[in-house]
């Protein structure tokens, strides 16, 4: 079984709106719904769990009914940090999935994810035990000196940009977080599963990504996504 864990527990405010960005509406529909629909429509996704900010859990239940998001089987309360939200989502599934099932951890504010990206994430994970959507860095890179200047060139061919979905055999990600909690190292790393993997000496395997699959963070990202949706709708009607 393949289970998508959609993370919607954040309260990001850089979009300049009065609600968490995953619940901002684009053409009348919340961003989170677009994200869930990408997994809802994918033939290899069997179930979806949404880790949601507590104040919006009731609203999310309404959205699930309104948009017929039938693969959403569980809604779990988010944590006070990204890592704790992932832990809540993963640990909640302990008695509900098998050790060799695949979980796909994905940001609720990343609605650009494509069928191809999801498919390849599952494929690589089946072969390697984990995968992260990844793309080469196409821009020129330099070091950052206090946000003011750069004096050193950085070889972009040695850099990959990691994104979501991040896919894991359930037993792997469950044990990863169990060990991290026991060793008390969660507060020593940046708040991402991949950062924790690096800290614990693990290897991350790349699956397909693309430059479009961004996480909505700013007002400009919102405008970009609105244009993307308009184009998709236009193409459907041609």
Largest sheet, spatial ordering of strands: 5-4-1-6-10-7-11
Structural class of the helix and strand makeup?
A: alpha/beta
Number of strands: 11
Number of helices: 7
Overall morphology: globular
State the end-to-end distance: 36 Å
What is the percent of helical residues?
25-40%
Radius of gyration: 18 Å
* Biggest beta-sheet profile: 7 strands, mixed
Q: What is the arithmetic mean of pLDDT?
A: 92
Strand content: 15-25%
Secondary-structure element sequence? Answer: EEEHEHEHEHEEEEHHEH
Summarize the model shown.
By secondary structure, the chain is an alpha/beta fold.
Task: Give the key terms.
7 helices; alpha/beta; two-stranded antiparallel ribbon; single chain; globular; 238 residues
Overview of the structural elements:
The protein has 7 helices and 11 strands. It has 238 residues and is of the alpha/beta class. Strands 5-4-1-6-10-7-11 form a 7-stranded mixed β-sheet, with helices on both faces. Strand 4, helix 2 and strand 5 form a beta-alpha-beta unit. The model has no long low-confidence stretch (mean pLDDT 92).
List the helices and strands and how they pair.
Layout: E1 2-8, E2 25-26, E3 29-30, H1 31-40, E4 47-52, H2 57-66, E5 72-77, H3 82-92, E6 102-107, H4 115-128, E7 130-136, E8 141-142, E9 153-154, E10 160-169, H5 170-182, H6 193-199, E11 206-207, H7 219-237
């Amino acid at each position: 079984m393949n289970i998508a864990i959609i993370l919607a527990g954040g309260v990001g405010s850089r979009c300049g709106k009065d609600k968490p960005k995953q619940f901002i509406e684009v053409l009348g529909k919340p961003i989170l719904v677009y994200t869930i629909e990408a997994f809802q429509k994918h033939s290899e996704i069997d179930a979806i769990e949404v880790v949601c900010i507590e104040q919006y859990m009731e609203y999310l239940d309404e959205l699930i009914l309104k948009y017929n998001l039938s693969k959403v089987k569980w809604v779990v309360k988010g944590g006070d940090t990204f890592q704790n939200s992932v832990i809540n989502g993963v640990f909640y599934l302990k008695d509900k999935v098998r050790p060799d099932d695949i979980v796909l951890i994905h940001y609720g504010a990343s609605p650009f994810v494509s069928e191809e990206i999801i498919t390849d994430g599952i494929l690589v994970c089946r072969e390697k035990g984990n995968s992260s959507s990844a793309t080469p860095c196409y821009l020129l890179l330099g070091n950052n000196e206090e946000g003011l200047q750069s004096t050193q060139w950085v070889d972009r061919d040695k850099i990959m940009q990691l994104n979501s979905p991040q896919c894991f055999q359930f037993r792997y990600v469950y044990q990863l977080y169990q060990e991290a909690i026991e060793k008390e190292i969660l507060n020593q790393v940046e708040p991402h599963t991949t950062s924790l993997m690096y800290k614990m000496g693990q290897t991350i395997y790349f699956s397909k990504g693309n430059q479009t699959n961004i996480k909505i963070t700013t007002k400009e990202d919102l405008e970009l996504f609105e244009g993307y949706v308009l184009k998709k709708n236009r193409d459907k009607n041609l």
